[in-house]
## 1
Amino acid sequence: MLSFVLKRLASTIPVLLIAITACFFILRLAPGGPFDQERALPPEVLANLRAYYHLDDPLIVQYLRYLGRLAELDLGPSFVTKDFTVARQIGIGLPYTLILGGSAFLLAIFGGVVAGIYGALYHNRAGDWAIAAVAMTGLVVPNFLVAPILQLVFGVRLAWLPVGGWGDGSLRFLLLPVTVLALPHIARISRLMRGSLIETMNSNFIKTATAKGIGRRRVVLKHALRPALTPVVSYLGPAAGYLLTGSIVVEQIFGIPGIGRYFVNAALNRDYGMVLGTVIFYMGLIVLLNLLVDLAYAWLDPKVRQR
Amino acid sequence: MTLYAGKREALEDAFLDRDDEMPRGKPRSVTRDALRRLRANKAAMTAIVVFAIIVIAALIGPYLVPYDYETPDWEAFTAPPSIESGHYFGTDQNGRDLLARTLYGTRVSLLVAVIATTVSVVVGVLYGAVSGFAGGRIDSAMMRFVDVMYALPYILFVILLMVMFGRDVFLLFAAIGLLEWLTMARIVRGQTLSLKEREFVEAARAAGVSSFPIILRHIVPNLLGPVVIYASLTVPEIVITESFLSYLGFGVQEPLTSLGTLISEGTDALGAADWLLLFPGGVLVTMLLSLAFIGDGLRDAFDPKDR
C-alpha cells in the first residue's frame, strides 16, 4: 500500500508541472499587459510598475522566479486589487466554495446511489423510466439554464427560498445552488449505479445468497452494494473536478462570494497574477482530490494496488 | 470497386445464397449496414428531423423574419410575444425582435460548434492514428501527454485562452477544438492498434508505401464509424461550452449574439420578461436533446454489440 501511495504521489508532480508551465506561457503569450487601461499611464509610472513586478526580465527568468515562489506556496501579487495578494483573495473565497462544492458532492453521491438502486431493483418499470427521464434532462440541460428556472419557480413565484446570496449560510440559502450544482452528477451517478447493480444482481454469488434464504433487503445492502459501487467510486475523482469548475458558474448565478467569482472577475479584468494563481490553485486542488479518490479506490479494491 | 463488381456477382452466384435484401452488385459495407440500423431507430430519426429543422431555420430563417437582430423596433420595447405585432417571440429591452435574435444566435452557436468540432476531429484523428501506428516508445509518450491533459479541467484552459484571445470569437473556438481532441485521440489510437495488424496494411507496406500515406489512405478511412459517433457527441459539448462562456461574459459580444448570450440576457430579465429566457433556452435544450438522441442512435447503429 505504501509503495502505491508513493508511486501515485510521484505521478502527480509531472502533471502539476506541465499544467503550471502551460498556464504561465499561455498567459504571457497574450497580447497587451495587465496595466493597459483606457487612459494610458504615464511612461515613467508604467516603467516603474513593470520594474516592480519584474516584467522586463527575460521570460524564462520570470518563469523560474514564479516556480520558486510557488514552491514556497506563495501565489504572488494581484495586479488589479493591489491591497490583496492572490493567496489572500483565495483564502477569503475558499470556505464558500468548499461548503458549496462539498455539500453538492455529498448530495450527488447520496441522491445518485439511492436513485440508482431504485432504478436497478425496479428496472424497466414506471419509476425507473421516470428516473431515467429526469437523469437525461439533468445531463443535457446546462446548469446556467436550470438555475434561473428554479430561481423563477421557487424564488420568485412561490417565494419559498431566497433567489440568491449567501445570507447566514443556512440551508435555505444553500438549497438551490447545491441542487443545481449536484444535478448532473446525481444523474451520472444514478446511471452508473443502476447499470452496475443490475449486473451484480445477476451474478452467481447473489443467486447463492438468495437461495440460502437471505432477505432481499439484506442481499442488496450487504452483498451486492459494495461490489456494485466500484464504478461510482472511480467516477468520484472526475466528479470532484467538475463540481469545482461547475461552481464557477453557480457562484456567478447565485451571487455567492467564492473563488469562482474572484476568478471570473480577474479574467474579465485581465488580472494575470490573479488568473494564473487561481487556475493553479484549482488545478492543484483537483489533482489532490483525484489523488484522495484513487487512494480510497485502492483501499476498497485490492486489485488496483497491484498495478 | 466497380472494376470488381462483375467478378463479385459471379462469385456470389457460384458460392453464396442469393441475398434479396440488398440490391445485387452493390457492396454490403459496414457503413451501409449501420445506416440501415439507424433508419430503423425511431427516436434517432425523430431527433435528426428536429435537428434538421433547427439548422434550416437558423440558416434561412433570418431572411424570412421581417426584423433583423440588431435594429430596435421603436414601437415595442420589452413587448411580450404576440401574433398581431409580428414579434412572435416578443422583443427585448432594446426593442429588438427576439425571434430574429434567437435564429441568429442559433446560427452563431452552430457555426462555432462546427468549427471547433472540425478542428478537434482533425487533430484527434491524426494524433491518435500516428500514436497508434508508431507504437512503442513514441506511442506511450504521446498517450502519457493525453493522460496529463485529461487530469486537468479543460474549462480552465478555455478561460485562459479566452483571456488570451480576447474578442476574436472564431479563433477562440478553433482553440477550444484544439483542447477537445483528447477522447477522440484515445478512441482512434485503440482502433489503429488493431487495424495496423490487418492484411491490407501489410499489403500496402509490402508494396513499399511509407508510413504517413498508409495512415492517411488505409487507416483513417477505416476509422469512420467511431469518429462519426464521437464527433456527434462533441458537437453538443461545444455548444454548451460556447453558451457557458457567453453566459459568463467571455464569448460572443454585442451586437452579435449567440444562444448563451441570449440566455444570459434572459436571466437578467427574469420575472419581468420571462420569454427572453424561455425561447432561447427552449431552443438550446431542444437542440441538445436531439443531438443526444442522434449520438445514441449513431452509437447503436455503428456498434451493435454494445446494445
## 2
Amino acid sequence: MGLLNKLDDPYYGGGIILGTLEDVLNWGRSKSDWYLQFGLACCAIEFMAVNASHFDFMRFGCIPRTSPRQADFMIVSGTVTMKMAERIKTLYEQMAEPRYVISMGSCANCGGPYWEHGYHVLKGVDRVIPVDVYVPGCPPRPEALEEGMIKLQKMINEQAIFNKRKRLREAEEKEKSVSDVVLSQN
Amino acid sequence: MGELKKVDFEYSQLNSERMRLNVGPQHPSTHGVLRLEVELDGEIVTEVVPHIGYLHRCFEKHCENMTYPQVIPYVDRMDYICSMNNELPYVMGVEKMLGIEVPEKVEYIRVIFSELNRIANHQIAIATFGLDAGAFTPFLYLFRDREFILTIFEKASGGRLLYNYFWVGGLAHDVHPTFKEDIRWIVKRVKETNKEIADLLLYNKIFIERTANVGILPADVAINYGCSGPVARGSGLPFDLRKDAPYSIYDRFDFNVVTGRGEVGTVGDCWDRNIVRFHEIEESCRIIEQALEQMPDEGDVREKLPKKIRPPQGEIYSKAENPKGELGFYIVSNGKDKPERVKGRGTSFVNLSVLPEISKGYLFADLIMILGSIDIVLGEVDR
Amino acid sequence: MIEQEIYNKLKEHFGDAIVELKEAPPSDPFIQVNPERLQDICLYLRDEGDMLFDYLSNLSGMDLAENLGVVYHLYSMKYKHTIVLKVTVSKENPNVPSVERIWRTADWHEREAYDLFGVIFEGHHNLIRILNPYDWEGYPLRKDYKTPEEYHGIKVPY
C-alpha cells in the first residue's frame, strides 16, 4: 500500500465509501468481465490485436475463457453464416446469466458488404441472439472495440439487480407517459 | 480378504473402443471456424474429417454482380491477414486482359507492400503457432512489430487490415512522403525481432520436441495434393512462383527460395514448415531493401483508364505467390463491365485438404500442431 | 512445351476425344476435350515423359447458359509449363469423370463444383456438399439461382 499512502487520500481517517450495494456489485461485475474466446472472420484478427501488446484488453479486466459456461460476454467478431448461426445460438444459450453480447463489425451488425448477394450470410447476428453493443466498422479499429467495451461496462454499471420487476415497470410507465405526452402534443 | 486372484489376460483381448471427437467450429486452436471430426484410438488419431464452410461468404456470387474495380474489396476479405498479396493477382489479371502496363513506380510500390504484408503474415503464423504450443510471449513480441507494419499500411492506404489499395491500372493514391524512411526503419526492426524469435521460440528445446518429426509431408504427396507455399517448400520442394513464373518485377531482385532441410528432424515436418516462414521474413527484407534502392522517386501512380472497365471477351488464370502459397484467380470476361465468373483458388483451401493425410498415426496434441503449421485462414478456405 | 505441341501430341494419341485448341491472346489458350475419355487424357498428361503435369493448379465449374463446364488448370513442376483443359456437359445430364484418383487435390475442388454448380463427378469417393450446409437446396452459382426465403427458420434476405 506504499503508493496509495502517498496519494492524497480523500477518505482520510475513515476509509469508508458510501454507496448502495447494487453499485458495489455492478462495479465488481463490470470490471471483471470474462469473454468467450472465439473468432469468426477478419474482425477476429483485429480482436487478436486488441488482446496483444499494443492495446492490452486485459486492463479492462477481460480474460479469455474457452468455455462458454465460464464467460460473461461474447464478442461476435465477424461474418455469421447460415451454417454458423445455429452454433452461435447454442454458444449463447450455454452461457450463464447475466450474459452480454458485443456485435463487432458491419457483418455481425447487418451483413456488411455481403448484405445483397450473400445467399449464405446471416444479415445481422441480432436475428438469432440479442445484442447489447454494436461496434461499427469493417473491420473496426481496436480503439473502436475498446469504446464498445466501455459502453458495455457503463451498461452493466447502470443495471438493476434488486426489485427488478418493480423498477422495470416504473421505467415502462415513465416511458409510456412521456410518449403519451409526445403523442398528445402532435 | 483372501489372496489376490491371478488373472490371465493378454493385451490382444483388450478391446479399445474408437472414439469420435468433435473439434470446433468454436475452438481456440482451429484458427477460425473449422470443424474437425476426429476418430481416436486412445490418444492416437486414426481419422480426421475436416468440415468447412462455416465462413462461406459467397465471394464468387458477389464477383458476378460487381464491376471489376468493385470486386477488389471482396478479394481483400478472402485472406484477410495478407490483403495486399490478394489484390496483386486479381489486378494483374484484369490488367493483362485489358492489355495495359502500369508505371514503373507502381510496380515497385506493389512489390514492397506485398513483401511487407508477407512479413506481417508470417509473423502472425509463427505467433499463433507458438500460441498453439503454449508459448504466449512470442505472440506479444510479434504482434508488437506487426502493429508498426500496419501503421505504415495505414499511412499509405487508410486501412489497418483491409486496404483496397492496389487498383486496376495503378494504386488508389500515392504513398506518403516519409515512405522510404518508415520502411527502412521497420525492416531494421523486423530483423532484430527475428533474432529474438529464433532464441525464444524456434530453437527452444521444448518447441523442437513438440514439432520435430511431427506431421511429415513427403514432397510427392505435397505435389499430388496441390500444396504450395511454405507447406510445399518445407518438404524440400523449391516451388516459388516468384522464381518459377516471374510476375510483376520479381525477376529484378536477388533472393533465395528457402526450403526445409530437416535441420532438427525429418524433412517436411512441422518445424521445417515454420523455419521456412522464419527465413522468408529475412528474404522479404532483402527484396524490400533492393526495391527501395531501385525505386524511382517521381512518376504517376495510375494509368489512364476509361471510366468503365470492360475487358475484351476472354479468360485468364492469374496467379501469384501469396504468403501461404499459390493464389490464383480464374477470371472470365464476357465483354461487359461485370465479370462472367471469378474463381478464387484459395491457397489454404488446397493446403488444408492434406491434413487428413499427414495427421494419421500421431497423438491428438500433435494434430493441433500440424494444423497450426499449415497456417490456414478460414476466409480463404470457405471464401 | 508450348500448347500447340501438347495439342498435336494429344490429338495423335486420342484422336476425336480432343476437340480443338483455342488461342486468342491475351486469353490463355485452352484445349477442349470430350468428357468420355477425360480420365485417360489426364493420366496421360500426368505420366508422359515430356509433359509431367503433376500439379493441378485449379479446377473450376462454369455455368455456360445451356451447359455446364469444368476447367482444369495444369502445371508441371519439372518443366514449368501450363495447359488448360475444358469439358462441357449438358445441364440435364451433368456427368463428368472424376480426376480425384489422378490428382488428390481434385477431391475438394470437385466437391466444391458439385456444391455450387451441380456437376456430378462420376467415380468420386465422397461427393457431398462442402461449403454450403449438407441440407442446402439448389446450386447457388448457377445463373438462375434464387436465394431462399428462409433456412431453418432464419430469414435469409436482408
## 3
Amino acid sequence: MSTIEDDDEAPSRPWRDTLVRLMHHRLFVTGLVLFGIVLIAGLAAPWAAGVDPSKIGMRTRFKPPSADFLFGTDNLGRSLWSRTLWGAQLSMIIGVSVVALNAVFGTIIGALAGYVRLLDKLIMGLNDAMMAFPAVLLAIGITAALGSSVLNVIIALSIVYIPRTARIVRASVIVLREMEYVQAAVAAGAGHWRILSRHIMPNALAPLIVQLSFLFAYAVLTEATLSFLGLGAVPPTPTWGNIMADGRQYLTDAPWIITIPGVALMLTVLGLNLLGDGLRDVLDPRLRIQP
Amino acid sequence: MSTPLVEARMLSRHYAVRTGGILRRKFTPLRAVDEVNLSVASGETLGLVGESGCGKSTLGRMLVKLNPPTSGDLLFEGQDVTAMRGADLLRLRRSMQIVFQDPFGSLNPRMSVESIVMEPLLIHGAKADAAARAKVAAMLEQVGLPARAARRFPHEFSGGQRQRVGIARALILKPRFLVLDEPVSALDVSVQAGIVNLLQDLQAELGLTYLFIAHDLAVVKHISDRVAVMYLGRVVEVADKRAIYANALHPYTEALIAAAPAVRPGRVRPPRAPGDVPSALAMPAGCRFHPRCRHVMEVCRAVEPTLTQPQPGHFVACHLTGVGG
C-alpha cells in the first residue's frame, strides 16, 4: 500500500497514466495501427483514390494488380484501389455514426433503466425482446423495410445494437448506484443529475468505451454483410460488401476482386478487436477472461 | 432530560423479499429494523453494536435520511423530519452526515480529494473559488492530511488516509450529528487508534454528536458514552457504557461481551450464545433471542418483551428483568 508520503511532489495525472499504459500494450498498439490505416485510407479517399470508383472501362476488365491498377480491376474494369478506398470511407462513416448513436442513446436508455427502478422492467423488457432477434436478421429486416441507403443502414444498425449497449450501461449503473460514494453524495444533498453525471457515468465509462470499440467492428462487419446481400448502399456506390458480392462470381478467374476488400474487412475487424482487448485490459481489467 | 438531538420513534424498515418459486411468487417481509426507539443526546457518543445483519447500518442510514423508514418517526432537534423533502431536506442535510465503513468504496475514484471534500459545499451553493479551496485545505489539515493531498486521487492513499478524507467530506458542512458506520472495522488495528483519536478530538473541538456503529465492543467501549445493543432488528438494551459492561442485563449483551477477546484471560466469563442468528425472514416467535438464550423461560417463547427501564437510564427488553418477568 503506497501512501502519499512516499510519493514525490508531481501532481496526479490519471488520464496520462492510462495513456502510457495503453501505449505499452502491444496488441492495443497493433490494433490502433491497423485501425488507423483504415481510418486514414477512408479520410484520404477523395485524394488518394485517383480515378472515379464508378468509371467503367471495357478494355481494363479483370486486370490483376499491377503498377497501373494497384489492386487490379473488376468485371466492369473499375479500379479496385479506388473502390476499396471509397469502401473504407463508407465503412468508417457507418462505424463512427453507429458508435456515436450508440454512445448517446445506449447511455441514456441504459442509465435510465439502471437508475430509475420503475423504468427498469419496462425498458429491459423491450430491450430483451429486441435482443431476441439475431443481429444480422434484424438488420436485414429493418433495412428491407426502410429501403436501401447509407442512412437507413446506419439507422438499422443502431436499432440493432443500442439495446446491447444499453444493457452494458445499465449493468454498470446498477453496481455503481449502490457504491458508498454515491450514498455519501446523497447524504450531502446531491441531486439526481449530479449523482449521474459526476459519480455514476464517469465510472461507467470504462466498460462503455470497451464495448463501443467492439461495436465499431460489429457495425463494419454487419454493414458488409448487408451490402453483400444487396441491402446496403445502392450500387454503384462502392462498399466492401458489394465489391465482394460482385467478385464472388469470378472467384476462380479473378480472385483479387473478392480477396482485397475481404482482407481489408478482416484487418479492420481484427484491428478493432485488438484495440478493444487492449482498452479492456487497461481500463477495465475485471472483464478480462482469465486464460 | 432536555430534547435529544436525534430521536427515533417506533422506526421500522421492512423489505419485501421474494421467496418461493418462479411460478408462485411470494413476498415475505424482512424486518431489518423493527419498531426501534432510540435517542441520541446532543454532544454524546452513542455506540450501536450487534452482529452483522442485525440492522444497525440500516438504522444508521435511516437516521441521516439515506433510507426512508417504512413506518415510525424520526425527530431532529424535536422536529419531525420523517417526511421532509426538497429544500427543507437539503437544509437538514447540512446538520447530519455519515462516514462509511469501506475506505475504498466510499470515495469516487475519478475525483481528486479536493473535489471530493468540496462537493458538499458546491451542492449547498458555494462557488469553486479560492475561498472554497481554503476551506477544504483547512478541513484536510484538521483531519490530519497534508495540504498536498488535495490534488491527489483516492487510489494513492492508504485505508486510514482514505477514511480521513471521508471524515473531512462529512465535516465540511459543519454538521452537528455524525453517523459513523463502522468507520474503523476495515482498517488495520495499528491505524484504528489514530482514527478513533481523531474522531474524539474532532468531537471535542466541534461539539459533535456521534452514533458510532460497530461490531467490535472494544472500540465502542473506548469511544462511547452510552451503548445500544441490537439483535435482529430490535434494540434489546441501552445503557450507560459502564452499566453495560459491568452489569449487562440482557443475556445477549452478556454473550456479546463474552465473545470479545479476553483482556484478563483468568476471569470467569458468561458463556457465549450458541448457534447462529436466525434468518430475519423466519423470525422466532416471542423473544427473538430465545432459541439461543441460556435463561430461556416459557414466557420467552410466546411473548415478545418490550423495552423497560429497571434502573434509571438503563433500558432492556427481557423477561428476566422486565416488569412482566
## 4
Amino acid sequence: MKEAIRFDHISKYYASTSVQASDDISFSVQEGEIHAICGENGAGKSTLMNILFGLEKADSGSVYLHGEKVAFKGPSDAISCGIGMVHQHFKLVSSFTVKESILLGIEKKAVLNGKEEADFVRELSSRFNLPIDPEAVIESLPIGLLQRVEILKMLARDVDILILDEPTAVLTPQEVGPFLETMKSLSKIGKTILFISHKLGEVLEVADTITVMRKGRVVSTGIKASETDIPSLADLMVGRKVLLQVDKGPANPGRTVLEVNDLNVFSPMGVQLLSNVSLSVRAGEIYGIAGVSGNGQEALVAAIAGHVHSMKGSVKINDVEIGHMPIRGKRQQGIAYVPEDRIHTGLNMLANLSDNSLMGFQGSKELNKGCFLDWDAIDERAHDMIERYSIAGSSPKGLVSKLSGGNMQKVVLARELAYEPHLLVVEQPTRGLDVGSIEAVHRMLIKERDKGVAILLVSVELEEILSLADRVGVMYSGRIQGELEGADINETDIGLLMVGSKRRAQ
Amino acid sequence: MNSIFDIITLNVLASAIRLATPVILAALAAAICNKAGVLNLGIDGFITICAFAGIVGAYIFRNFTPIGIAHPVFATYMGVVCAMLVGALLGLLFAFLKDSYGVDLTVLSIAMNMLAVEITVYLMRTIFHQSGTWSDPSIVQLPSIRLTLIEKIPVLGGLLSGYNIIVYFTWILALVLVFVMHKTKYGRYITAVGENLEAAKSVGINVSKVRYGALIFSGILSGLAGSFLSIGHLTLFTRDMASGRGWLGNAAALFGFNNPGGSFFAGLFFGFADALALRLQNVTKIPPYIIQVMPYVLTLVILSIVSYQSIKKKRKRSIY
Amino acid sequence: MKRKSFDPMVLVMPAVALLLGVVVAVLLIAITGVSPLRSLGVLISGGFGFSGKVWPIFMTLGSSTPLILTGLAAMLCFKVGVFCIAQEGQYVFGAIVAAWFGASLKLPPVIAVPFIMLASMAAGGLYGVIPAVLKVKLGVNEIISSIMLNNISTLVLEYMVAFPLRADAGQKAQSEVISKGYWLPQFIYGSRWGVSFLIAIALIVFFYFYIYKTRWGYEMRMVGENRRFADYGGIKSGNVIIRSLVISGAIAGLAGCMEVLGNYHRIMTGFSSGLGFDGLSVAMLGMSNPIGVVIVSFLLAGIRQGAQLGLQLSLQIPRELGGVLIAMVIFFVAIGNVYRPVVEKAVRSISRGRKDDE
C-alpha cells in the first residue's frame, strides 16, 4: 500500500477565539483505505480537513500528497489534485437540477447541451451504483439524495481521495446503512476515503484505519479497526473513564403542568410534522425528548413555546389552552424557553447584558417608573443575575457578544428563569459548550426541577438525556415512538426507539 | 370623444418603444445584478452621470478628425462609447468596494444617486456655465437607422424600424441575455453565485469575477441608457436626467422575476405607460398627472403581487 | 455600577467622512480657479456667520428645522432596521394638507393650527403605512416602494397646485397663501428661524427619551437589532415596525406642515427639492442618535446655505457644491470600511498616548 496523504506537524491557532485548533498534527493515510478520524465536537477534525482541502491555511507544517508537498490556495486546487470533500452542510443551489448541480463548474463547453449532461450523470451514477434522476430539482430531494448528489459531484471531478465530514449526522437511521455500504464500495474500486465522525459504531463498521483526535492533537493513529472496540476508542476520544454524571436525587413530581393531547402540526405546504403526539410533564420532573434531530422535535417545541403555521389538538398549561396563543400570551401563562440557537434567537449580540436580560420584562411594573424604564433597577437586576449564576467576564453594560458560549447560555437561562416559569422548555442546552459549562447548566436545570419547575428537555445527546431526564419520550418521524420512566431508562431501549422499532426489546 | 385608435396610433407605439429603451436597459442591468446577488440600486445615478459623460464626450470629439474631416455623427458615437466607459468605471468602483471591503451597496447606492444629480449640475455650471440645461449646436443626435427589409412587412414593419442603434442593440441584447442565462455555463455561474454563494465557491467558481462582471455590465448598460437620453433621444443635458428611469428599471427587473425576457417586457410596458401619458396629455383633457402616476402605482401593485408570490414560494420551502 | 465605556469611533468616523468630503469639495472648487481656502471661508461665513442684516447662523438654524424633523423620521425607520426613504413623499403630503387647510379653514388660530398640524401628521402617517405594510406583510423592498411613493407624491403635488389648490392670479403654479393668523412666528424676521424650530427640538427630546428610556423604544431597538430575538421574546415585531414607520411618517408630514405654516405659507411646484434625501443623510451621519441628528442637521443646513448664499452669490461657484459635499460625505460614510482600520489604529494610539500621560 502506498501513502496517499501525510500531515506533517500541522498547527493552526485562531486568534479571534484563542483556540489552538490544530496542535502539531502528524499522521498519514494510505491509498485505498477508509481512514476514520474520530473526536468529539471541537477536537479539530474539521479544521484539519479544511486545511487539507485548501479552505484554510495552516500556521505551520505541511501536507504531502502522494509524497509531494502541496499547498492548496483553494478548493479548486485541491479538486484538481484529486481531493474532493463533502461538507456537513451541503453546498447546493436549490433551484438547480441534479445534473446542473453535479456539473456546475466543470462544464465542457460554454454552450450547454442538456441531453449530453443528463447522459453523463446517468452514466456516472450507474458506474458508482448511486442511482439518481438527473432532472430532479434539488429543493424537492430528501437529504439522503442530496448527499448522494454531493458525492457524485466529487466523483464527476475524478477525485481519488474523498473527505466526508460527519456524513451520517444528517441522515435518518434508515439512510445510514446504505450509505455505509456506498462508502465500502467506493473504497473497493480504489478511492481513498477520509471519514470524519464521532459515531464509533459506524466507524468500526466501515473503517480500515482510525486516527483519534482530542483538543487539536492526535491522540492515537494507525489503529486497525479490527483490533479495537468502542470502549477503548471512547476512552481515547473522551480522555477519561467517567462519563458526565450529575448529582441528582429522585424526582418528586407534583401536578401536571404541561399537557399535550393528540397534537398534529402541519407545515404551510401541508406536510404533517407531528402526528397525534400526546405527553404530559409534571411539576418537579424533567421530561426528556430524545431522538435523531429532524424527527419533529422542532415542531413540538414551536407548538408549545413558539408559533406554528397550523395545528390540531390541544396544548395546555395548568389546564389553560395555549396552542393558538401568541408568544407573549404563552409566556404570560408561565412558559420559559431556552432556544437551541442562542446566538441568533436567544440573545441580541448587538446589545448589552441589561438589554438582553430585559427581554420579555420590559412591561413589568418593577422595572418601570411611570412611563419610563427604570434603568437603575434593570442594571441592578442584571447585576444580580451575573452574581447568582456566576456569569464570568460580564457587566450589565457589557456586550453579550464578548462572553464565552457557556456564559451566553447562562445569560439566557438566567433571563428565562426570571419568569419564575411553571414550564421550562430547553432545547439542546449544552451544544457547543465546554465540560465545565455543561456541568453548570445541568446543575441549574436540576435545581429548578427540585424547586418544582416542570422541565421539557429536548436533546439529541443521549448522554444528556440519560443523565438528566426522569422520564423520556423518544421521537421518531413526527410521533412519540415510546416512553420510558425511571429505572427503565437505558441507552439500548432509547436507541431502538430512535430508529423506529415499534416495540421495546425486553 | 376620441376613440382608442385615435389615441394609440403607430406613432405613439413607436415613441413608447423609444421611451422604454432606457428603462429596458436599466431593467436588464438590474436583473443581471439581482441574479448575481448584488442588488444595485445606484443605476439611476449611473444613468444621470453617463448621460452627462455621453454628451460631454460628443462635445469633445466634435472636432476630432481621424479620417480627415470632423464628423459630427462620429462624435456622437464616441459620446456613447464615453458614456459606456464611465458606466463601466462606476460599476468597477461598486464591485471593488463590495468585493474588497464588504461595503453595503444599498447605502453606497443612495450616496451615488444623490451625488449624480449634484455633481453633474455642478460640472455643467463650472465647465459650460449653464444652469438649467446644456446643449451645443455642434452636437447631433444619434442617427435613426431604417431597416428597409423589415419596413416592407405590413403593419409591424413600420413599428420595428427607424430607431437609433441603441434601441436595436437593446433588443439584440435582451435576446442574447436570454440565451446566456439559460443556455450557457455563464448564466449558470451567475445564478449559482446569487443563490448560494458557498455552493459556487466550493466548486471553484470565481465569485469575485461574477460580481465584478455583473456590476460592470450594469454600468455599461447604464452608459447606453444615459447616452440614449442625452444624445440619442434629445441632444441636451438637464438636471436629474435619469429622473427615476433607473428606479423604474429596478422595479421592472423584480417585475420580470429577474429574467432577461421578463425584465425586457416589463420595461417595455413601463415605457408604454409613459408614452400613453404624453399622448393623453396632448389629445385629451385628462390631467397628465393621473396617467403619469400610473407606472408608479402599477409598479407598487405588481411588486406587491410578485413579492407575495415569492413569499408563498419561500414559505413552502420552510418548515413553519 | 459600571457604565458602558464610550467608543470614540462613533464620533471619529463621521468626522473623518466629513473631512474627506471637504477635501473632495476643495478639489472641485480648485477647477473653478477660485482659491479653495477663500471659498471655504466664504462657505463657513455664509453658513454659520454673524454678520449682515440677518445673521447667516440664524438662517441656518431656520433651514435646519425641516432637516431635524426628516432626519428624526429617517432615524426612526433605521432603528427598526428598515431602510425606508419615504420621508420626501410624506413631507410633501404634510405640506399639501397644511396648505389646503391653511387656506380654507375659517377657525380661530388656537384651534386651527393644532388641527392643521395633526392633519398633516395623519397624512404623513397614513402615507407611512403603505411601505410599512408592504414590507412587513409582503416583503416588498422598502427602498423601491418608497421611491415609487415619492414619485407619486411629486405628481400629486403638481396636480394639486395646478388644479384644485391653484391661486387664481399669477402664472406660476402655486397655492393660495394661507390665512395670516395661522403663520407660525419667526424669531428674527427673514431668518425662517422660529417656533417650528422649538417644536422640532422638543420632538428630539421626546424621542430621545422614547427610544432609550421607554419600553416601546426598547422594543424598537430590539426589533431593529435582532428581529428573531424580539419575536422569540414575545414582541410582535411586525407591529413594532409598522408603528415606527407610521410615527416616522407623521413626523415627516409635520416637517412639511411646519414649512408651510412657518416659512413658505403656500406650496408650489418643486416644493420639496430633495429634503427627504437630506433627512436620510442626516440620519446616516448622525449615527442614528437623536442628538446626532440635531448636530448634523445644523451642519448640513449650514453647508447648503453657505453654498447658496456664500459661494454662489459672492464667488460664482455653483450652489450644487453644497449638495456634492453632502453626497460625498454620505459616500465616505458608506465606504467607511475602507479607511476604518487606519482610523482605528490612529485613535487607539492617541488614546493610549493619553493614558500614558495620566
